[in-house]
Each structure stands twice: as C-alpha cells, then as structure tokens.
Amino acid sequence: TSGLDPVVADEVLQLLVGHVAREEATVLMSSHQLAEVDQIADRIGIIHRGRMVLAGELDDLRGAFRRLQIVFDHEAPAVAFQSPGVVRVRRHGRVLSVVANGHVAELSAEARGFGAASVDVDVMPLKEMFLEIVAAED
C-alpha cells in the first residue's frame, strides 16, 4: 500500500480482511507499514538481520509489552533488574525507562525496592515494540 492514497490503502486492507473472512484463507503480509499491520494482523513475526526476533498473536504481544517509566527523587541508579522480561533499560536523569515483555508486576515491585518515587506503566503500540526489539538486538 506504500504510495497509495489513504482511502485506496484502506480499501485494499478491507478487501484483504473480507477475503480472509469469506474464504477462511491465510494472508502472509511482508510490510514495514506497521500501522496497517497493527490494524489487520492476527499474528506477527518480526525479522531482524535474517533472524526471527519476535513472533506471536498480536493481541498477546499487546497484552505483554509495556513501558515502565520509573522516576526517582534523585539521579536514577544504574541497576540490573533480576526479574525476567526486561527488553531494554534507558537512564535519563531521574528517570529509568524500561521496556518489558511480561512480568510487569515483578518489575514494578523491584523498581520500588530500588527507591523509586513512582512507577507508571504504559501500553506499547506495535511500532514502538518493533523499534525497541530491533534496538535491543543491535
């Protein structure tokens, strides 16, 4: 759909969805148009440098991936989380930004144990998941 105007691109996607529903077919899409993939896919796989780095039901992945914004009253400490599920950690001043694949409750509790003033948990759109996973792989 790259290069198509938004109305035509949407029509193409709706035709695909309609075909799959009528014919009980499977459509394999290879695309960098993540907003479109997010709109119609049931299952996704992310390939980076020839390796499958993430695969699964899109709803399951949406339910598992979270960004934790952990704020401290002072400079954020350099910590090594022991809980599983950490994809990437970034430290900026008083804030640790943690991308997690599951285990959010354990990671939040561990962050509070490090003396965090607050822990906010946000859902991650597919594009952000993709960017964080690829960045973590590099």
What does this structure look like?
- 39% of the residues lie in helices and 29% in strands.
- The protein is built from 5 helices and 6 strands, in the order ααββαβββαβα.
- It has a 4-stranded antiparallel sheet with strand order 4-5-3-6, with helices on both faces. Strands 1-2 form a two-stranded antiparallel ribbon.
- Strand 1 and strand 2 form a beta hairpin.
- The longest helix is centred in the first third of the chain and has 18 residues.
- The mean pLDDT is 92.
Secondary-structure element order, N to C: HHEEHEEEHEH
Relative helix content: 25-40%
Major beta sheet summary: 4 strands, antiparallel
The dominant shape is: elongated
Spatial strand order of the main sheet: 4-5-3-6
The number of E-state strands comes to 6
* End-to-end distance: 29 Å
The residue-averaged pLDDT reads 92
The helix count comes to: 5
Question: What fraction strand?
Answer: 25-35%
Q: Helix/strand-derived class?
A: alpha+beta
Low-confidence stretches: none
Nearest-angstrom radius of gyration?
18 Å
Write out key terms for the chains shown.
two-stranded antiparallel sheet; 5 helices; single chain; 6 strands; four-stranded antiparallel β-sheet; alpha+beta; 138 residues
